[in-house]
Automatic annotation (TrEMBL):
One of its GO terms (molecular function) is zinc ion binding. Residues 116-145 form the C3H1-type domain. InterPro entries: Znf_CCCH (IPR000571). This is C3H1-type domain-containing protein. PROSITE patterns: ZF_C3H1. The lineage of its organism: Eukaryota, Metazoa, Spiralia, Gnathifera, Rotifera. Keywords: Metal-binding, Zinc, Zinc-finger. It comes from Adineta ricciae (Rotifer). A zinc finger (C3H1-type) spans 116-145.
Length: 1244
């Protein structure tokens, strides 16, 4: 359809359109207005004409959408066209209303004709960058495309905002800014910055708002009661009361001793540990399909229980406390003192196989270079210096081995050093002298590079580790079973997932951090792996079936039952095994097993019958969470070991008081050691561990570890490590778990990493560096190193997406053959913490999207998007995921794979239902029995529109009949103006809503809709809405425990603070009067209803209280309206926002309390009943609060007159002053003492 060249509206009526000789089309009226002669003084003429016809002037003026409607224009007049014509760039509302304007060119200020100044085009259209509709709340301030397309009121954003502009930090931290340098002031005037307070900003100065933008984070739903105030990621993601969104960086970094101090963390953020040791990846679980293992283990237990008629699970699923244990319990290792000293000196916990390789000096040198002390030497991070150090260390180890007659273990017939000498070591007549010569030459070179002190540290550590290696081979770790080699478990570090009762391994108990269990080389075995070869596994776990006859078949079955904590489904499989084992052991014939019963069995059997965790074969000491050691073993450690403990563990080691006996030479595989003191020591440790878990389980469950965790040494992209989970395996698990899998062929890969400089490669084959792979097709996602934040000018290397072989990385960078690249991918990110990346693979459309997620996704919206055709790269064939490191070490965690529907179902919002009450004309919320209640709806991503939201909510409530008219209402139960928001996500974000609060309501317009009919629709089989009954139960109990007294006192105190800040006005006085009235109702109605919860025997009194509660709803509604209506006047005041949120929470708990009693009490409420006569004390409080309010207002408005009138009576004067000041002796704060006594104590 053609559009008018003037107003840009469609030309619907042919009789109303005019075509010029040049073919340009107009509305007839638009053309007449354009041809109308202009007055010399247009502004004055327009004003005069407007004043002459005020009665007929259209209220919307030039902004009227019906300006070309003949019927409308016959009744109303509209202003003339702006005299500036196509040159007008004024976007002020008053100006747009005062004049009509030419349409804006679709290409705006980027129009070629505009830049060429083509007169004919410029006279028909205006050209300017439209103003960003979000103004100072725009989140795209680092998005180059957005900044180019829209105009903003603030200057160019600082490239280092919000986290790394030191100049802006100086300005915001100094109270006296005049003492700052001119460079600080000039920078903050020239560049805009993110306000550190965010939505809680109270600075109302024009200078601040013209140089700052305010990003509204989501509010933490728990507010001041949040339990995660020391969680850096949580604090960086949500807004909390009295905590700035952008906290300053702590100067102590990761070594800060106050990281567990909530007050300190509220002011400072902390960087992650940059020197975390590398846990090498050796592909020990290569070939294992863990998703299949998890599924078959769970189904095997399920079939066995059904076959033997066991009682099923009461809830139909695994209890949460058992799942919580499996998801959060730590792996525990035990060893003897000799092994423990070796661990301390080597700086690693090692497998038996790794210890065997320490006979090779080159292998020892690799171990030395990974020691935590040497990793702190910056010079060793350069290849040349590292090579010199490696040769120096190897030569030292060779000399030490020769001097201790350990040469039989050294490799013969080959040179151990890649040196520049002419004679190899094997051909030298004096091997020791050859190595000593190498030591002298490399020592001199290193001294010039890294300094004598670091050279001495390398020498000392090398000799310590070489001596420890010699000593270690006389006492190798482990029991030394030959089956361990057959099962390949000798390449792992053994541990027990939970309390470890393997006393025969030793009395030093080492507790590892949970994340080591999520390493790709880790796995979990139900009971000891060796039980498969011995046959005990088939006797103890009959659901495994008959034991295979051959050893190879038993080994194969062991590998088919291994579990992996980083792969989905392990928690349910492991929990099912624990439940079945406990039931079988206690002869329960039931799956209804408690966590206590599981632990009772656990502590009564040998550790080989619990859960065996096989960890990577080389684990740095940083991954040890805590150590328990008996007193006599601790005191007998060597001096070197004691120094290592002081340097590494500090507060992470506990010395028990027991003096334990030596370990039995012949191990006895029972739960408790025969020796008395050893048994007492073990019992103490297990009790401590279980108590510690019980104490901290609530915090651990809030943020338990998910996905795969790995560290990769720098390889310059020569080594590519495949993850133990493929895309197809992840999709197969999703398809089985979801009852209604999505047809959308989209996969999301999320991962966390530090530093960047990594490559993610998705391929159709597993990449092999030694094989020719002509059919290999892969997607390369290269993430550049994080930028420096100390340079004057921002610079960032290129991050890119491309198709090709990962070994072509340098060629792709040089020839620029990537599909898309970005040099501002990290702009706006916090580089001192982990980055959370998201890679989206839309296999159907060929789209690839790389973006930031998590906390950095709040301030960085620079997503990289590209499209591959099937001929370029077929995304449907990609299956394997590889990770590789460039010149920097990679520390990455939480590798997770999601499908589209899974993401939609994990992110939900709550909705409610409203309907007009025909009796009182009030819009009220419908409860569950009336077809209402709070429901959860699925969220279809950030681009979800209000039309989709409306349709989704109607579906949830079963309103499929199109004749039932509905509207959307916002969270405050007001009509929702969808025009104010771009998307539903924008609405959620700008209002700070969370998944725990009702975000939106559905209002039923039709008055004749029968609620019973709606209820019947809801119970149909076609639509089964999700109702979170546990949430309803929580809210009910929360209302019963909720302290109405404390909260109403807080509200009154907040209003007094507002009066102190802003002066006295009618709004605050009215608000204070309402809170005083509600205070009286707290004692007369709400407290009795709370107290009756425990003794609901007085039916008459409960009915009376409920009746009076219905009568006082007006005060709550009027207060809510008052707060909402004046929100714009106090929109930048943090205290006012706190008042609103606190009152809405208060009102919500009143409603919960009311609904709870109405559901349980079916007695008819008699409207003639009032507060019982024996409640005189509560009546006096209501009257008292009215007096209090009047005194308070009198003191505020006429303080001198009030003082003169009341000073004559000292007792009376003292009592009233106590009331006004809010003293604890006054009745405005109620403690445990009787109310009447408090009133008498005020003497008033």
């Amino acid at each position: 359809m053609s559009t008018c060249s003037s107003c840009n509206l469609p030309l619907k009526d042919k009789t109303d359109q005019v075509t010029t000789a040049t073919g340009i089309m107009f509305h007839r009226m638009c053309l007449e207005q354009l041809l109308k002669p202009k007055s010399p003084n247009t502004d004055q003429a327009s004003d005069t004409a407007a004043s002459a016809r005020d009665a007929k002037q259209c209220e919307k003026g030039g902004e009227c959408s019906q300006i070309n409607d003949r019927n409308h224009c016959s009744k109303w007049t509209h202003p003339d066209y702006c005299p500036d014509g196509g040159h007008c760039k004024n976007q002020q509302f008053d100006h747009l209303k005062k004049y009509r304007h030419l349409p804006l060119c679709s290409k705006s200020h980027k129009c070629i004709d505009y830049q060429k100044e083509v007169k004919e085009h410029c006279e028909k259209f205006r050209h300017f960058a439209p103003r960003c509709p979000y103004g100072n709340n725009c989140v795209d301030f680092h998005n180059k495309k957005h900044i180019d397309e829209f105009s903003h009121q603030y200057p160019t954003p600082c490239p280092y905002t919000p986290f790394h502009c030191s100049l802006y930090d100086d300005l915001t931290e100094h109270r006296n800014t005049r003492g700052l340098s001119n460079a600080v002031h000039q920078h903050c005037l020239n560049f805009a910055h993110v306000c550190r307070a965010g939505r809680n900003c109270t600075d109302t100065t024009q200078l601040h708002w013209s140089r700052s933008f305010h990003i509204a984070r989501n509010l933490c739903p728990y507010g001041e009661k949040c339990l995660r105030l020391t969680d850096e990621e949580h604090l960086n993601s949500f807004t909390h009361p009295n905590i700035l969104d952008i906290r300053l960086l702590c100067s102590e970094g990761d070594s800060c001793c106050d990281r567990a101090n909530a007050d300190h963390v509220a002011k400072f953020r902390h960087s992650i540990a940059d020197e975390t040791g590398v846990v090498p990846y050796y592909s020990l679980d290569k070939g294992s399909d863990f998703t299949k293992n998890h599924r078959e283990v769970f189904e095997r237990v399920k079939r066995y229980a059904e076959k033997n008629n066991w009682k099923p699970l009461p809830s139909g699923t695994i209890p949460n406390d058992i799942l919580d244990w499996v998801r959060t319990v730590f792996p525990i290792h035990r060893c003897n003192p000799i092994i423990f000293e070796s661990i301390l000196l080597h700086g690693h916990v090692m497998s038996r196989d790794y210890m065997e390789r320490l006979k090779n000096p080159k292998f020892v040198a690799t171990s030395v270079l990974q020691h935590s002390r040497l990793r702190r030497i910056d010079g060793l991070k350069t290849p040349a210096c590292e090579n010199d150090a490696r040769q120096y260390i190897t030569a030292l180890v060779c000399v030490e081995f020769i001097e201790n007659n350990f040469t039989s273990a050294m490799t013969q017939g080959m040179d151990l050093l890649d040196t520049d000498t002419a004679t190899p070591a094997a051909a030298h007549p004096d091997t020791k002298a050859f190595y000593q010569d190498i030591i002298k030459r490399k020592e001199n070179r290193l001294a010039l590079t890294i300094g004598n002190q670091d050279v001495k540290a390398i020498r000392d550590k090398t000799l310590q580790i070489a001596q420890a290696s010699i000593k270690l081979h006389s006492n190798p770790a482990g029991i030394g079973h030959e089956p361990d080699k057959i099962l390949r478990t000798d390449k792992h570090v053994f541990s027990i997932l939970g309390p470890h009762q393997g006393h025969y391994y030793g009395d030093v108990i080492v507790i590892f951090k949970r994340e080591i269990l999520h390493h790709p080389d880790s796995n979990i075995s139900m009971q000891a792996a060796t039980t498969y070869l011995s046959g005990n596994a088939y006797r103890w776990r009959p659901w495994l079936g008959q034991a295979p006859g051959s050893q190879d078949e038993r080994v194969k079955q062991y590998h088919a039952t291994k579990l992996h904590a980083g792969v989905p489904g392990y928690d349910y499989a492991l929990s099912a095994e624990l439940i079945a084992l406990t039931s079988l052991h206690q002869k329960l014939n039931s799956l209804d097993v408690s966590m206590k019963q599981i632990l009772d069995r656990w502590t009564s059997v040998d550790s080989h019958q619990t859960v065996e965790a096989h960890l990577p074969q080389l684990i740095p000491l940083e991954y040890i969470d805590h150590v328990y050691i008996p007193k006599n073993i601790y005191e007998n450690l060597s001096e070197d070991a004691m120094r290592a403990i002081g340097a590494v563990f500090r507060n992470r080691i506990s010395v028990a008081e027991q003096i334990v006996e030596p370990v039995d030479k012949v191990p006895t595989f029972v739960a408790r050691p025969p020796a008395k003191m050893r048994a007492e020591y073990q019992d103490t440790c297990i009790h401590t561990l279980l108590f510690r878990y019980k104490k901290y389980t609530s915090q651990l469950v809030l943020n338990y570890h998910r996905g795969i965790t790995m560290t990769i040494r720098p390889t310059n992209f020569e080594e590519h490590y495949v993850l133990p989970l493929t895309i197809r395996q992840a999709y197969e698990h999703y398809r089985i778990m979801e009852s209604d899998p999505s047809t959308a062929n989209t996969t999301y890969i999320y991962w966390k990493a530090a530093n960047g400089d990594m490559m993610i490669t998705l391929s159709n084959e597993e990449i092999s560096p030694t094989e020719h792979q002509p059919n290999l097709r892969s997607l390369i996602c290269y993430v550049a190193p994080k930028p420096s934040v100390t340079d004057d000018n921002y610079h960032e290397a290129s991050t890119y997406l491309s198709a090709g072989h990962p070994f072509q990385h340098e060629t792709i960078v040089i020839k620029k053959t990537y599909k898309i690249k970005s040099n501002h991918f990290y702009m706006g990110c916090n580089v001192n913490d982990f980055f959370t990346y998201c890679l989206e693979i839309h296999r159907g459309s060929g789209h690839i999207v790389l973006s930031h997620a998590g906390p950095n996704g709040i301030y960085n919206h620079n997503a990289m998007v590209c499209v591959f055709s099937r001929s370029e790269l077929d995304l449907t064939t990609l299956n394997f995921v590889h990770v590789s490191a460039g010149k920097h070490k990679i520390l990455s965690s939480s590798w997770n794979f999601y499908q589209e529907t899974f993401l939609m179902k994990t992110k939900r919002f709550r909705c409610g239902r409203l309907r007009l009450n025909q009796t009182n004309g009030i819009i009220e919320k419908l409860e569950l029995e009336n077809g209402g209640g709070s429901r959860y709806c699925h969220w279809f991503g950030k681009q979800m529109t209000f039309v989709q939201v409306h349709r989704q909510i109607r579906k949830v409530y079963g309103l499929s009949d199109p004749q039932i008219r509905t509207k959307l209402y916002d969270y405050q139960k007001q009509p929702l103006d969808t025009e104010q928001y771009r998307t539903f996500h924008d609405y959620i974000d700008r209002n700070g809503l969370s998944g725990n609060s009702i975000a939106i309501y559905l209002y039923t317009c039709d008055e004749d809709v029968d609620n019973d009919v709606i209820s019947n629709v809801l119970s149909s089989k076609e639509i089964i809405p999700y109702v979170d009954q546990s949430m309803n139960t929580f809210r009910m109990s929360h209302a019963i425990e909720y302290s109405f007294i404390n909260e109403i006192n807080r509200l009154k105190r907040y209003v007094r603070e507002l009066m102190n800040e802003n002066g006295i006005d009618n709004v605050l006085l009215q608000l204070f009067e309402n809170f005083c009235t509600i205070y009286g109702y707290v004692f007369s109605i709400l407290l009795p209803l709370q107290q009756q919860q425990n003794d609901p025997t007085n039916a008459m009194e409960i009915t009376v209280y409920l009746n009076n509660l219905e009568k006082i709803y007006e005060i709550f509604e009027s207060t809510k309206t008052l707060l909402h209506r004046n929100m714009s006047n106090y929109r930048r005041n943090r205290t006012y926002s706190t008042v609103r949120s606190t009152f809405f929470q208060f009102y919500n708990n009143v409603q919960i309390l009311r609904n709870r009693w109405l559901r349980n009490d079916t007695r008819k409420i008699d409207s003639t009943l009032s507060i019982p006569t024996h409640s005189d004390e509560r009546k006096s409080i209501c009257a008292y609060m009215q007096i209090y309010y009047k005194i308070f207002v009198a003191n505020l408005t006429h303080p001198e007159a009030w003082k003169a009138k009341n000073e004559t009576d000292p007792i009376r004067y003292y009592g009233i002053k106590q009331i006004i000041s809010g003293s604890r002796e006054a009745a405005i704060v109620i403690d445990e003492k009787p109310i009447s006594k408090q009133i008498r104590r005020t003497k008033y």
